[in-house]
Amino acid sequence: MTGSQDGIDMSTLSGVEREIVEKKRRSPENYVYESPAALAFELNMRRRIVEAAVALDASGVTFVPFETTRGNRNFWSRTREGGLRLNDGVLPSDGINDIFRNGRLYAFECATAAVIVLYKGVLDALGEEVFNSYFKNLLLYDWQYDSDLQLTAVNNREEAYPGDVQYFKNPDHDPNKPEWQGENVIVLGRGMYFGHGIGITTAEGIISALNRERVPGSRTSAYLLDETFHPDFEYLRRLSAGRSLPSAAVRYTGYAVIARIGSHNYRIS
Asked: Where are the beta strands (DSSP E) in 160-265?
């Protein structure tokens, strides 16, 4: 299949975007898109998420358990549970961008970091006006997230693509270090992952780091779970275009933990 048949010019794609297209072409799954624009939107947003993960790694933010979360008080207030709530009068885009600009003022754990990376990717893909319209009253805490992020689960790690979120489980972690019971990671492509607190490395690197935090003497290794998550790209594309959502779309009010709402099958044709 050629780029022109896809309705996209492969020569204009970044390395990450090209990797996604080529992997989806080889996949036994069918990936069907409404239009070339829908595919282009997903590729752009996945690239933005990857760029956000790399930027967060370089920002100077610190990995800490919930008990010692901190942030820039000009933008965020710490909650009793260890979350960061956006201050009144602060634009959501400004709050998210400050984390990347003043990372040394921030400290949080890996699930919060993964959500922040997703927010930054969405912000950069949709623009400040759209992001600020839909992602209000942000709370950064564990896997709580704004309903318009619309995370979707796919129970097949072989179908993970750059920009996806995955999880390495550490079943025999030191009980005195619950923050190391696993690691939420962003798939960067070419076999690399970003995990807050570990950095940018391979799957073997993530597993090795987690295994160092096991119960002394344990031989039970950390491992990568099958489940992978990503935003509902078509939902976000419709938000960006100001289009009404299809009646079958799942909507949530307020905040929600990850909802297993199934996977979408797409075909590049």
From this structure: 165-169, 182-189, 192-195, 199-202, 223-224, 227-231, 255-256
